[in-house]
């Protein structure tokens, strides 16, 4: 029995792609083979995933489908009578994109509609967070279960685990995530403007992420804001980088700041915790669940208030250390909660 995985797209730095790779690694350890297939695969990622047109499905194969947006992949999977398993990563509400990318907005709306088809045709369903699980249950997935997202930090095992080695003298803000309207990089820029007006220009902010070319107008808007608000020296948007550069940027930063208004989990929160960055985040979507009882959450985007709170993290080492300590506990607890066994259990049944 092979256990194949499917998704709309594969890109190495993307959370769903990382999840598929980790599941494949864990399945291999248990003696199961299988490939990763997607409709859209960049040429430099084809050593990890194949185009769906190359999939050869055998009668006993199990098909695991990662859902986040409408694509032809679902129709392909539905053609086969094989056992089908959903892993739900959430579908971003279309309204975030309607002013920037009508096609993407349409695909998100169809992605929501696809859930009803999946509900009636798949054998088993999992969600990677309780936030996502609640969505499935609200639309009638009676037997959906939680399968916590698998994180692999072995690639960064040489990162020093003594967080007191990190410098907090010079504020170096970081956000990692797609350049997209729901991530609200525009609010990060507004925060930077407020910070500069109150605290001066001795800081940096980096926003790291891939931008869909069809959403270039949002990126253009961000670049206009940066220059119009006189932030070109302090605020930088960095496109997709490889793992070694990502590690370097995390190591150089000393605070993770998120204004995102929709997350089904948000892997970069956990990555930031791993690198001992205090996390300050807008309490939207699954963000409170992901952080547990750690990090600093805010429910209103009052930038003056957020600046004051962030400033206290830099100035008060005991406060900062208590935040990082609680985050480390949360990360350890989360990593212990993940297991491939629930997926294997339904694949074998």
TrEMBL record:
Residues 169-324 form the Glycosyl transferase family domain. It holds the Pfam family Glycos_transf_1. One of its GO terms (biological process) is lipopolysaccharide biosynthetic process. Keywords: Transferase. Coiled coil: none annotated. GO terms for molecular function: glycosyltransferase activity. This is Glycosyltransferase.
């Amino acid at each position: 029995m092979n256990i194949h995985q499917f998704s709309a797209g594969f890109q190495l730095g993307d959370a769903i792609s990382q999840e598929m790779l980790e599941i494949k690694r864990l399945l291999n350890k248990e003696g199961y083979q299988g490939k990763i297939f997607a409709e859209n695969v960049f040429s430099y990622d084809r050593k990890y995933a194949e185009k769906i047109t190359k999939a050869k499905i055998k009668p006993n194969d199990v098909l695991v489908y990662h859902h986040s947006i409408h694509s032809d992949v679902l129709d392909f999977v539905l053609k086969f009578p094989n056992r089908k398993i959903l892993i739900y990563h959430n579908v971003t509400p279309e309204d975030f994109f309607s002013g920037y990318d009508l096609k993407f907005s349409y695909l998100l709306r169809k992605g929501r509609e696809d859930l009803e088809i999946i509900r009636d045709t798949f054998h088993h369903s999992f969600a990677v967070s309780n936030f996502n699980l609640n969505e499935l249950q609200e639309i009638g997935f009676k037997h959906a279960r939680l399968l916590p997202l698998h994180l692999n930090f072995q690639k960064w095992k040489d990162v020093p685990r003594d967080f007191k080695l990190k410098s907090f003298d010079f504020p170096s803000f970081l956000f990692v995530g797609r350049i997209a309207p729901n991530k609200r990089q525009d609010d990060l820029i507004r925060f930077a403007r407020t910070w500069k007006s109150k605290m001066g220009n001795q800081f940096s902010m980096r926003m790291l992420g891939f931008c869909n070319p069809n959403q270039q107008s949002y990126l253009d808007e961000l670049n206009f804001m940066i220059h119009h608000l006189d932030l070109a020296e302090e605020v930088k948007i960095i496109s997709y980088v490889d793992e070694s550069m990502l590690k370097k940027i995390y190591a150089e930063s000393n605070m993770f700041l998120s204004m995102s208004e929709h997350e089904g989990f948000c892997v970069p929160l956990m990555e930031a915790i791993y690198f001992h960055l205090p996390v300050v985040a807008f309490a939207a979507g699954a963000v409170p669940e992901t952080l547990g009882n750690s990090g600093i959450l805010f429910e209103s985007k009052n930038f003056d208030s957020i600046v004051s709170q962030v400033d206290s993290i830099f100035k008060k080492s005991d406060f900062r250390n208590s935040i990082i300590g609680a985050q480390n506990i949360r990360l350890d607890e989360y990593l212990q909660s993940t297991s491939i066994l629930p997926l294997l259990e339904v694949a074998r049944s």
